[in-house]
Amino acid sequence: MTSDAVTPVLSHVDAHLDESLQRLMGLLRLQSISTDPAFKAECDRTADWLVDELAELGFDAAKHVTPGHPMVVAHDDDNDADEAMHVLFYGHYDVQPVDPLNLWDRDPFDPQVEDTPAGKVIRGRGAADDKGQLMTFVEACRAWKAVHGNLPVKVSMFFEGEEESGSPSLVPYMKAHAEDLKADLALICDTGMFDPETPAITTALRGLAKLELTITGPNKDLHSGMFGGAARNPAHVLAKILADLHDEDGACTLEGFYDGVPELSNSQKAQWENLGFDAEGFLGGVGLSVPAGEKGRSVLEMVWSRPTCEVNGMSSGYTGAGFKTVLPSKAMAKISFRLVGTQDPQAILKALEAHVAARLPADCSYAIHDPEGSPATTMPIENPAFEAARKALSDEWPKPAAFIGSGGSIPIAGYFQNLLDMDAMLIGFGLDDDQIHSPNEKYNLSAYHKGIRSWVRVLDALSKV
Amino acid sequence: MTSDAVTPVLSHVDAHLDESLQRLMGLLRLQSISTDPAFKAECDRTADWLVDELAELGFDAAKHVTPGHPMVVAHDDDNDADEAMHVLFYGHYDVQPVDPLNLWDRDPFDPQVEDTPAGKVIRGRGAADDKGQLMTFVEACRAWKAVHGNLPVKVSMFFEGEEESGSPSLVPYMKAHAEDLKADLALICDTGMFDPETPAITTALRGLAKLELTITGPNKDLHSGMFGGAARNPAHVLAKILADLHDEDGACTLEGFYDGVPELSNSQKAQWENLGFDAEGFLGGVGLSVPAGEKGRSVLEMVWSRPTCEVNGMSSGYTGAGFKTVLPSKAMAKISFRLVGTQDPQAILKALEAHVAARLPADCSYAIHDPEGSPATTMPIENPAFEAARKALSDEWPKPAAFIGSGGSIPIAGYFQNLLDMDAMLIGFGLDDDQIHSPNEKYNLSAYHKGIRSWVRVLDALSKV
């Protein structure tokens, strides 16, 4: 197959964009919030939707039950070219919760294309994370099949429904079904562009460690008039524990936290500096102006190559309207760490526990719930598939594609490496202003359209590696 | 009138206790939850009930409309002894909400006398706070009148229906009706005993200052993977602000916080030490063992005579089930201060604001909502009415009555002093285990019975001052 094969497929994508869009809208209407048990049936329905869609495309698609939400696995049996590369495409069909609902301008599960000053956007929960992204790949396959009858490489797909709730079933499932999932290369679509004109292949992903910490003082909420002054207030204890997590220069104070954190090579530093990253615009877009991380680091270093320690949630006592002079029994914080290099998630969770224990006054106890961790991942850009894909992306977009880092954690990339001995290539078309995990999430219509076209080109390029 | 007059009145109380109890049960069945608009008509009905009851006793009783719930004011016109002391008795007929309803062992508004290991109790919402307490006074008046035809002192009564919802109409009403309410001494029944054997006159009430503080960083919740490390996290900022509110010895660090905090006199200290307060039991009852307040202070000092600074509520980011790696836009804390002596609530609220401003990093803003403050109140125990009442109470109970402090705030006592230039004497028969504001509120039957008898004695004693 030559690249002449690509042109009619791209034309087909352009001519049938509206149908591709309507299919995505159908997927976005499904309320697959994985973290909330109330939406369990809806997650199941979303898996069924994908199975139907892939079966219609000629894939051998099946829904696999797990202790949590189901997996969807599909193989394209039409392609029998034994010598063709076999890729396994991964995405997730679950979405983040939608609260606070009052900050949405529309029903998060009634998606709509909206005109904005920056162009048309697809508005709705999951539009960018990850339903829009995974559909770019599905629709690229549809166009290839519509035009040529089959795909240029052997394709399997693997969708999970627990990515937004810590993927508890993922590793056991991958271990148990290694044979079924194993391919030459994994493709992962849960990442973004460098900017609206510059596509990217993400080659360095931060890891993640997280836990929920609860401090308990009195055995029930007390009246602050009766007990205030004499009884230990766990909100004060928690505040002290959290305040002590960083020093004045923004560095994390946990014992051994920076063990395994590599310094950026000069060449990588130079490449990143050449990207012309607009730190002011990045922070300005969210109402900030001063980088808040470690002193002396650039913003790109802070989000791509340095570890972090963040409070993601905090709660204690009475938080409703009005005032209740309660002295709380408990105070809770959700804390997470983004990890880089060879930082050990388990060692960091232990260091946090020691930090808490060292600050615990008499009569207080602590409990740690749901501790979890996955290390950072670095991709092998020496694999020729990376350069082939980079060129294909560069053909589609105004500016050449870049190899970039990512602040987020996509543990699946590491699992493909460690559990299935497969390299993983991360390509996605999200933008920084997509408001993923926030109200009014969107995906640019151009990201969807050119995303489908990009995968058409990448599949072709991979068939020639 | 001599104290020979008291004995037949006490006997009358004993002989007619069941009727007194049935009248209280009638009052307890009225669902006068003032904070919930759904119960507005019921509050009104409760005011009518009191007017009828007092009119039947020969009082000139009236219900007075306010923008909120009505006031009930009643004057005893039978007593024409111009030289007699004129007392104004204050209570409140409204009650706290009953949720969580599932933690009640019975319908909160179907009161019942229950046998418990500690004796008979009257179970129901408002039994102790404040319907049972106010009825001890009403029934004492009834017994005096039944036996002697009139009361030993001139008595007026003043009941409000908004105490549990911040008393919004109280100050305007007192100002507008100062003439009608003015008497020689106010009697307030909304307090407790020192212990089940030791009656008390509460002579020091802590004041209260409070506010809600919100720190804003980014203009929306962010993805901690994308922005974590570079964007300012307001939860960290708030933690630091709260952690810095106390030093290592438990003292509040706010500038000028201890201005106006008096040291306890040696005699008062000695009196409190002699009470044999069970600090271990007090803390042990709520699962604590070590007093958490200022180093070197006794537990009684901490809750009666020292100021406090407490976080009553705290919230930021995602606090639901599971995990959301959000970098929050806002972090909120509700903070209150219990005040003593002549501490100035406004100065302390300003000092807190300065404390916040001094710790605010670039790109963060703060907002303060609903700041409110009322100073502490100290009663003039040199007024001979106090010693007379103390002796009368000591005659009724196993142990001598004590002048005690109270950690809570009862702003009405200050209003009598400041608006009507009247001293106020706080006598009540509540106990620490009455579960006021909580499910299964109760009032000991013995507190009700001996409370009525106590007021019989106090009225007699006041007639001789």
TrEMBL record, chains A, B:
Gene3D superfamilies: 3.30.70.360, Zn peptidases. Keywords: Hydrolase, Metal-binding, Protease. SUPFAM superfamilies: Zn-dependent exopeptidases. Pfam families: M20_dimer, Peptidase_M20. Residues 204-363 form the Peptidase M20 dimerisation domain. InterPro entries: Cyt/Met_Dipeptidase, Peptidase_M20, Peptidase_M20_dimer. It comes from the Bacteria. One of its GO terms (biological process) is proteolysis. GO terms for molecular function: metal ion binding; peptidase activity. This is Dipeptidase. It comes from Pararhodobacter aggregans.
